[in-house]
Amino acid sequence: MRPLRLALVCVGILITASSAFADATLFIGNTTTPSGRQAKGGAIGAGVLVIGGEFEYSTTTEKPEDHAPSLRTGIGNVLIQTPFAIAGVQPYFTTGAGGYREKLGTLQETNLVFNTGGGAKISLFGPLRVRLDYRVFKLRGSPQYDVVHRVYAGINLKF
User: Cα Rg for the chain, rounded, in angstroms?
Assistant: First the structure.
């Protein structure tokens, strides 16, 4: 009798469990601190209901004439988002931590980075969406700039 109850409980949990979702994004944007320069990267994430997680990698080009260093980040983020799109838009808030490498000429710094931001995933058709995002990065250690801002647009595929 016990194995039957256990089996029924397991089947009940599987039937009533919320479906998970995942998505991947390729993006291009602008890091604005201290001057505008190209940022590009990608993210892959998954979640259940309103809580999600993602890993993001991005790189920003160096602009020596503006004393603007290159910046590479690898960050794990937690997302809080609506469980579904509202009028085709799924807004989200995100925060996370990871590592960065900043380089300007022969100067280089590698340390921890924290970020906070938000954005929206806007439905186009089927699983294809546009993702708009704004982030504030707080760089630890001795970077050229402690706080860096980035804005991007990307193609997002929901699966």
Answer: 19
Q: How far is CA 122 from the centre of its chain?
A: 15
Say if strands 51-60 and 70-81 run parallel, antiparallel, or are unpaired: antiparallel
Which tens digits make up the pLDDT trace of 13-61? 545 545 568 999 999 999 999 999 999 999 999 999 899 999 999 999 9
Domains defined along the chain, listed by start: 19-158 (2.40.160.20)
* Closest among 155, 144, 157, 119 to 60, alpha carbons compared: 144
Backbone φ and ψ of 15, nearest 5°: -70, -40
pTM, rounded to two decimals: 0.86
C-beta of residue 157 within 8 angstroms of C-beta of residue 24: yes
User: Can you list the positions of beta strands (E) in the chain?
Assistant: 20-31, 37-48, 51-60, 70-81, 89-104, 107-125, 128-139, 147-158
